[in-house]
Design brief:
467 residues; two-stranded antiparallel ribbon; 10-stranded mixed beta sheet; 32% helix
Length: 467
């Protein structure tokens, strides 16, 4: 790639976290015990360096308390949609444990206020990066990037997350979560939080890409909200493989700016020079494309020229419409038909957000401050990864003869037993027995169109009940 890197180009330092070991044995037996041991190891590492994530390292968690740090972390991980007192009582009144003196709600609140939310981000990355990634697509890990809004408890004191509306309407609190999601193994790999009114999904995506350890083994999938020459140039500079959905030929996007003389399906290589110069010399030359310097980080002045090369694929969907994909994947390994299948897998992150908000109970918070909400948000991501990884690799279902479909573990029914297993209320054999109950059929060709209008307010359906 040519061009001079602008001072505005985004630079993010890598986080000091465990390195992913892609050479770990593919034949190892992934049991629930192994997954729990990985999480317990991450919690132990957190406790060793807890002073890094304490508000007052000189005094916090230095005395023996009724609710020590390890118990506090496990209690937060076990949170579901119950009241705070019910959560505390359920944790301490386990059938297999001797009932101790139960901490009060006040004691719990005082203890959790000592931990910075950044510690839970470290716990998420430490646990997730320690898991072996066994399922790949053509030798690559598939990472989908997307964002979702999360409504928060109303709190006027949290101005950063306050969304101000019209004068006659009450304001509300909201945050926007941006995540990288491992589609094949169902794991949230990274997460960045933005205030609801000041979200920047594109900048968040680039930050998370810069945090990845070995981008040569990854393929990034993203929808139309992440398109444009600037994002494409950043990804090309980073060295990661990517597939970005672009706007079609008749809309304002990369294919429209290229003024392509093609129609229908095509698969072409694009080699253009980007400039912000408005001279007629560049306007009449098809090898140049004019860009806005305020929206492109690799051009500083009109004399700069940035050369960009990528592959543009236009495919026809089953409903007759067309879709454009910008990518740097090799054509011999990923022909258009495989590209169509590859991008279709991106929908897994949409289902993951639904499972995170409802079966894992992300939307039920037990505190109003941003600090408490962020703690529980990252705990929900950790519990999702813990449960999903067990569901993907437990291999407890067997296809009976004469059945039409293969089956998978029902995630919504698995979250509750996985919480109990982490807590120690049930053993591994009982967990596996519960995972076999009510499996979900795998329908590879099933298609349900997205609704064209917003759903009306109504009671929560059974598929979205708290587990």
């Amino acid at each position: 790639m040519g061009g001079t890197r602008s001072k505005k180009a985004l630079v993010v330092r890598n986080v000091a976290l465990p390195q992913i070991n892609y050479k770990e044995m593919r034949t190892m037996n992934i049991t629930p015990k192994l997954t729990r041991d990985k999480l317990e190891t991450a919690i132990a590492k957190f406790q060793e360096i807890s002073w890094l994530f304490s508000k007052d390292p000189s005094s916090d968690f230095t005395r023996d308390r009724k609710l020590p740090l390890g118990s506090l972390l496990r209690l937060l991980l076990k949170f579901s949609g119950k009241s705070l007192q019910s959560e505390i009582s359920a944790y301490y009144l386990s059938p297999k444990k001797t009932p101790p003196r139960i901490p009060t709600k006040s004691a719990f609140i005082q203890q959790r206020q000592k931990i910075l939310w950044e510690g839970f981000y470290y716990l998420l990355r430490s646990f997730t990066d320690s898991l072996p990634f066994l399922k790949l697509f053509n030798g690559y890990r598939l990472l989908a990037c997307d964002g979702s809004t999360v409504p928060l408890p109303h709190n006027e004191n949290e101005a950063k997350y306050l969304v101000v509306t019209k004068e006659d309407r009450k304001s509300y609190n909201q945050m926007h979560i941006n995540t990288l999601y491992d589609i094949m193994n169902r794991l949230y790999v990274d997460c960045i939080i933005d205030p609801g009114m000041h979200m920047n999904e594109r900048a968040a995506m680039l930050k998370m890409v810069h945090r990845l350890d070995n981008v040569s083994k990854d393929i990034l999938l993203a929808d139309r909200g992440y398109n444009g020459f600037n994002d494409t140039a950043h990804l090309l500079e980073s060295g990661i493989k990517f597939v970005l959905r672009e706007k079609d030929l008749d809309t304002n996007g990369i294919p429209h700016a290229l003024k392509l003389p093609f129609d229908g399906e095509f698969d072409i290589d694009v080699d253009k020079k980007l400039t912000c110069n408005r001279s007629r010399k560049y306007a009449n030359d098809d090898s140049y494309v004019r860009v806005n310097p305020d929206r492109f980080d690799f051009i500083n002045d009109p004399t700069d020229i940035y050369r960009i090369q990528f592959r543009l694929v236009r495919i026809k969907l089953n409903n007759g419409s067309y879709e454009c994909l910008v990518t740097n994947l090799p054509r011999d390994q990923f022909p258009p038909e495989k590209m169509k299948k590859l991008y279709h897998l991106r929908w897994g992150i949409e289902n993951a957000y639904r499972d995170l908000k409802y079966p894992v109970d992300l939307l039920h918070f037990h505190g109003k401050s941003a600090q408490a909400v962020l703690q529980e948000l990252f705990c929900s991501l950790i519990m999702f990864n813990f449960s999903a990884y067990i569901c993907v690799h437990a291999d407890v279902l067997h296809r009976a003869k004469g059945t039409k479909y293969r089956y998978k573990v029902n995630f919504a029914n698995a979250v509750g037993p996985c919480r109990s297993y982490l807590h120690g209320s049930i053993d591994e054999s009982e967990l596996l027995d519960r995972l076999r109950l009510a499996p979900s059929p795998i329908r590879p060709d099933r298609y349900v169109p997205r609704p064209s209008h917003l759903k009306t307010q109504r009671s929560r359906e059974f598929n979205y009940r708290a587990s």
